[in-house]
């Protein structure tokens, strides 16, 4: 089964545009990115997700407890080793779980959570078409300039917990500058998920990439139609 995710190229994609966000909740500025913004009110039918942990199902249990999705649409993989190997070197377990969810629910979009924020980790393009790498300010403003595939090669970099930057001595301006140096024109969004800041921007970029993939935008499976 061919599981369609998000980011296949399309000759019908619209010209690139910028997005605007705020670091401090007051003043705003923009970053350029490829593709157009989506509408966060748009809903996709039957989303599902796969989580990866070493010896537990902690992330799956968290998502179920917080009712992110119906429990049947959240599968967990216990990798028995570094979860990052299961998204890059040997993707068979994750691909099998995704194919199972696709066959059962006819998903329009599927998510894979890798576990952790190893700077050396990145998804295989055979597994994921649109890659989001998330860091937070508690690691210090040095993290973006340390680079690594997650920082430099992801389709979207998210810097979370900006509301606590002043308390941990992290400069959002430094992180913004270094993210641009490491990523070029690749989009970076600063968020405070707990406060809802920047979440709409993240959702908009995901939906824009989903539409660029040529997805039908209607209910039903999005895999092979042949």
From TrEMBL:
Q: Where is the composition biased (Polar residues)?
A: 1-15
Q: Where is the CobW/HypB/UreG nucleotide-binding domain?
A: 45-187
Q: Name one GO molecular function term.
A: nickel cation binding
**Alphabetical keyword list:** Chaperone, GTP-binding, Nickel insertion, Nucleotide-binding
**Pfam families from the xrefs?**
cobW (PF02492)
Disordered, as annotated region: 1-46
Q: Name one GO biological process term.
A: urea catabolic process
Q: What Gene3D superfamilies would the database entry show?
A: P-loop containing nucleotide triphosphate hydrolases (3.40.50.300)
Lineage: superkingdom: Eukaryota
- Record flagged with keyword Nucleotide-binding: yes
Q: Where is the composition biased (Basic and acidic residues)?
A: 21-45
Question: What family does this belong to?
Answer: Belongs to the SIMIBI class G3E GTPase family. UreG subfamily.
The protein, known as: CobW/HypB/UreG nucleotide-binding domain-containing protein
Its ancestry begins with: Eukaryota, Fungi, Dikarya, Basidiomycota, Agaricomycotina
